């Protein structure tokens, strides 16, 4: 999936993946997509819930070899 | 301002002593709804940390200023982050060290009583998950029953009271938590007992625990009498200790009864459950003190933190023991089943030795409530 920006949050523990995601989102326009890579398991449920509460759309998420990838479209 | 750390042990003391505490739980809503810290004088507010990234102004009105505030999250990181913001706003805030993971694993040892020929029985209360395990001590020897995952807690406790663990039992193959029984037996060179009917698929050596077995702890002969009591699982076994205590495993709880479905055989096992509760247990002395392997709700705790009640009282008060009609009982047990415990299939396979997940994975499999009962 094509993304407008990539955030590498691997190795970061909660709450940093979301703190950084939020910052990166601020640089995007509505409709643009942020791709996030994280290794913190908690990020999975939290990013989904954060997207919902912030009006963004979690378009896709995958897990590969312990790396979680997320694509969030800015709302 | 700096924030203070509060340990799971300190939180446990507050729960048992019914002290007041205000908890701000900053996990996401679904994790919070699944499972949280409970206590009779604990007030709790859930606001996910990711809704507080810009500050805590919005929730300040909901947080009391005259009581201690404990911020809780899954592991710890986010709770420190939020506690610091509360502290900057002038509140006295602490965070739970190790988060809900630490809470899930903490055990509070409570002495239940003395045994006839000089010995004691201890209950280990896992407040965060509702699991109860036991240590019976007599004359320098100890037995552990239904232990939780971490063997060190029992090994260290036994060494502090100067006892050597010689026997380890599981009343049944657990589906809600990973048993530390096999590891304790390995570390201490003790005998590990399992009911053979629950152990048909296990991949390790064990001593078959069968109805009528008597195991003696210490030279003063504290007897552990195994009583075959199927229903939660086909092999479920209860113990009568010292003629005084009934360890009922996951068959009978204080305010509920066991569920028969965690191995996928609810219809087959509900008859066994009824037979055990309505016939076998009826033949026992009503003076026995029932010590179950779980509690469901915090109200089941006695004032000293223990979970124990006379069998006679349960016959009078426990709803599950008072359904005269068999069809109605069947319906209550199989028609009312709560959601199954998290990862219960993987937990069963781990307890059989079929899979060996790493520590982190095991911890994660156990997160959440136990859900072994029907009410």
What is the CATH superfamily label of chain A?
Answer: TusA-like domain
* Alpha-beta content class of chain A: alpha+beta
Report the average pLDDT across residues of chain B.
91
The CATH architecture classification of chain A is 2-Layer Sandwich
Q: How many separate domains make up the residues of chain B?
A: 2
Oligomerization: heterodimer
> Structural class of the secondary elements of chain B?
alpha/beta
Question: Short description, anyone?
Answer:
Chain A is an alpha+beta fold and 75 residues long. Chain A contains two helices and four strands. The model of chain A has no long low-confidence stretch (mean pLDDT 93).
What do these coordinates show?
The complex is a heterodimer of chains A (75) and B (375). Chain A has 75 residues and is of the alpha+beta class. Chain A has helices spanning 16-26, 43-54, and strands spanning 5-9, 33-38, 57-64, 67-73. Chain A has a single domain (5-73), classed as 2-Layer Sandwich (Translation Initiation Factor IF3), CATH 3.30.110. Chain A is built from two helices and four strands. In chain A, strand 1 (5-9), helix 1 (16-26) and strand 2 form a beta-alpha-beta unit. The longest helix of chain A is centred in the middle third of the chain and has 12 residues, at 43-54. The mean pLDDT of chain A is 93. A seven-stranded mixed β-sheet of chain B has the order 6-7-8-9-10-11-12, with helices on one face. In chain B, helix 4 links the parallel strand 4 and strand 5. Chain B is globular, with a radius of gyration of 21 Å. The model of chain B has no long low-confidence stretch (mean pLDDT 91). The chains are: A alpha+beta (75), B alpha/beta (375).
Secondary structure: elements and pairs:
The complex is a heterodimer of chains A (75) and B (375).
Chain A: E1 5-9, H1 16-26, E2 33-38, H2 43-54, E3 57-64, E4 67-73
Parallel strand pairs in A: 1-2
Antiparallel strand pairs in A: 2-4, 3-4
Chain B: E1 4-6, H1 8-16, E2 21-25, H2 29-34, E3 42-46, H3 57-60, E4 69-72, H4 77-88, E5 93-96, H5 99-105, E6 108-114, E7 119-126, E8 131-138, E9 141-145, H6 151-160, E10 164-169, H7 181-188, E11 191-194, E12 207-208, E13 214-217, E14 222-228, E15 237-241, E16 245-249, E17 257-258, H8 266-280, E18 289-292, E19 309-310, H9 311-317, H10 326-335, H11 344-351, H12 359-366, E20 373-374
Parallel strand pairs in B: 1-5, 2-3, 2-4, 4-5, 9-10, 10-11, 11-12, 16-18
Antiparallel strand pairs in B: 6-7, 7-8, 8-9, 13-14, 14-15, 15-16, 17-20, 18-19
